RNA sequence: GCCAAGGUGGCAGAGUCCGGCCGAACGCAGCGGCCUGCAGAGCCGCCCACCGCCGGUUCAAAUCCGGCCCUUGGCUCCA
């Protein structure tokens, strides 16, 4: 059973074979740091993170590069706003810091490098020069454009026909271009003040700042939008990537242009596998920075906790659209809660004196083995995280069943130590692939503030013994209000803290 | 207009590449039962889908082919 992935370039599900059988070169088209990251970004990050984890699980060394676009008129448009910073690079810096801290809160594996455009201008200039030398690009009024008609395969990713493509870029560029579809590799001068003005938020006054510029063989200017990814990925990962991941909304023109400029420059395939993350759907429109209908990552983490949020973000395949709504997110939380409760119960049972190595529950053990197989198969099938989740939930069901049967005292020989251990390990091991952490302090006895809760539960237990249920229920409600979920069982009350993290 | 993806139960969402095991997974919601002082959690059982529409291929189609309708994304910044 080998990993298969859907390649946008071919439209097919293909067996995954990296160039080097031991290494995977993974590039993720990162974000433009002009707004706080939102859940849509988080969805892509988490899916890329799961890919990264799964590839490592399969034994590959993953060289994962993820860029920050820190040169952009939208960033310039934020200068002076609130306390974001007083220059393009300061604003970018603020948002990069914020982004990295959001990434941490989502339990993402670190990429090997997070390159920035501003630090790769020499590489960009080199690349543009190469394209000019090879006659794939031409200079016009100090700007340089890529000549799409020179690149035979133009449109191969997005299936575009040159004649159908409308003009790209800002209006004033258009007269400088030979073909409407030609795109800027290098833009003369500073940021276009109109473009900056267009992106400024209401209430921000003053003259638009200048933004950064760099020297080049064509004079002072700024890099075009698409060239950065080519330059950065080639700098850090070489001419041919194994996997290039990005949002579906970037297929055209961004990724198409990346292919054109990269392959024209190197005569080598730019990326062997193009994977595209689908977008969030909210009430008939996508979630995006430009539409302003987004939930920021930090709000979401605060509201739902990392585990529930990751359960939500992996509740669909990376390449299918996902509905964002209060219902869908709380359903995900239910799933996570179910997993966690089963995990906690299994851990408690394994640690209890009633667990015995001589007890063997075959149905528990086969259910766990089946779930393991199902998880592996799901992940190998184009990173099908939803199926993977359901495999984990099958483990939860198997645990609960076994616990129930054992408690039913029909055969009072106790818990299947080996089977439960296996179940616990499975949840930990595969949960980790999805970035779900069961090691929280939410379990019974040893929990944070646990002693106090235990004390209250002791008091409550005494009230119950006296038949004073009203008071007992009050205590339970009060604990509930504090985020402590109480569960009465045959062995006394247990609890879990509802706040994740 | 052009390109791309998709339309599966009350919701959500797998399955469609390799047709039969799919009268359709997992979860949520709903119903009944067990357990419980009650509640929650859990367990057992059940209800709800002829898989957008029409036609075709086949012994057999949610899965293949053709047409149509609709939705979403892209063609302007965007994960």
Describe this structure as you would to a colleague.
This protein is 44% helix and 15% strand. The two termini are 35 Å apart. The radius of gyration is 27 Å and the shape is elongated. Strand 16 (484-489) and strand 17 form a beta hairpin. The protein has helices at residues 39-57, 73-76, 88-105, 121-133, 171-174, 193-199, 227-237, 251-266, 297-304, 306-313, 326-351, 362-380, 385-407, 417-433, 450-465, 469-481, and strands at residues 4-7, 12-15, 23-28, 61-66, 137-140, 143-146, 183-188, 221-223, 241-247, 271-277, 280-282, 285-286, 322-323, 355-356, 415-416, 484-489, 492-497. Helix 4 packs across helix 7. With 501 residues, the protein is an alpha/beta fold. The protein contains 16 helices and 17 strands. The model is unreliable at 441-447 (pLDDT under 50). Among the domains are: 4-277, Rossmann fold, CATH 3.40.50; 443-501, no CATH class. The strands form 6 sheets. Strands 4-3-9-10 form a 4-stranded parallel beta sheet, sandwiched between helices.
């Amino acid at each position: 059973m080998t990993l298969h992935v859907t390649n946008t370039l071919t439209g097919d599900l293909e067996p995954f074979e990296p160039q080097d059988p031991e290494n995977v070169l993974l590039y993720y088209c990162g974000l433009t740091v002009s707004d706080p990251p939102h859940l849509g970004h988080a969805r892509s990050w988490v899916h890329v993170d799961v890919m990264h984890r799964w590839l490592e699980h399969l034994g590959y060394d993953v060289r994962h590069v993820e860029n920050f676009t820190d040169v952009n008129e939208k960033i310039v448009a934020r200068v002076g706003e609130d306390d974001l910073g007083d220059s393009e690079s300061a604003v970018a810096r603020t948002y990069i810091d914020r982004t990295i801290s959001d990434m941490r809160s989502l339990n993402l594996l670190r990429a090997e490098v997070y390159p920035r455009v501003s630090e790769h201008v020499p590489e960009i200039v080199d690349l543009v020069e190469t394209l000019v030398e090879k006659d794939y690009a031409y200079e016009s009024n100090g700007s340089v454009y890529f000549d799409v008609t020179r690149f035979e395969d133009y449109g191969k990713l997005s299936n575009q026909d040159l004649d159908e493509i409308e003009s790209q870029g800002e209006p004033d560029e258009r007269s400088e271009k030979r073909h409407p579809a030609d795109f800027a590799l290098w833009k003369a001068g500073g940021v276009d003040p109109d473009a900056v003005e267009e992106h400024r938020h209401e209430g921000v006054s003053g003259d638009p700042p200048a933004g950064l510029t760099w020297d080049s063989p064509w004079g002072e200017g700024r890099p075009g939008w698409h060239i950065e990814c080519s330059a950065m990925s080639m700098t850090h990962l070489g001419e041919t990537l194994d996997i290039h991941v990005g949002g579906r909304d970037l297929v055209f023109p961004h990724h198409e242009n990346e292919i054109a400029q990269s392959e024209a420059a190197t005569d080598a395939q730019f990326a062997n596998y193009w994977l595209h993350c689908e977008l969030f759907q909210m009430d008939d429109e996508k979630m995006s920075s430009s539409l302003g209908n987004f939930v920021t990552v930090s709000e979401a983490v605060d509201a739902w906790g990392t585990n529930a949020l990751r359960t939500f973000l992996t509740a669909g395949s990376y390449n299918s659209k996902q509905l964002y709504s209060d219902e869908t997110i709380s359903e995900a939380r239910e799933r996570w809660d179910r997993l966690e409760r089963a995990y906690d119960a299994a851990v408690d049972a394994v640690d209890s004196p009633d667990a015995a190595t001589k007890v063997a529950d075959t149905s528990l053990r086969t259910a766990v083995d089946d779930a393991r197989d199902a998880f592996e198969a799901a992940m190998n099938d184009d990173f099908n995280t939803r199926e993977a989740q359901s495999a984990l939930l099958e483990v939860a069901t198997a645990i609960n069943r076994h616990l129930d049967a054992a408690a039913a005292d029909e055969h009072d020989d106790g818990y299947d130590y080996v089977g439960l251990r296996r179940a616990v390990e499975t949840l930990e091991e595969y949960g980790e692939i999805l970035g779900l952490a069961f090691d929280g302090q939410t379990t019974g006895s040893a929990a944070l503030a646990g002693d106090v809760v235990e004390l209250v539960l002791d008091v409550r237990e005494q009230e119950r013994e006296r038949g004073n249920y009203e008071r007992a229920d009050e205590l339970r409600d009060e604990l509930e209000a504090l985020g402590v979920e109480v569960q009465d069982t045959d062995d006394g009350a247990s609890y879990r803290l509802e706040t994740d993290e």
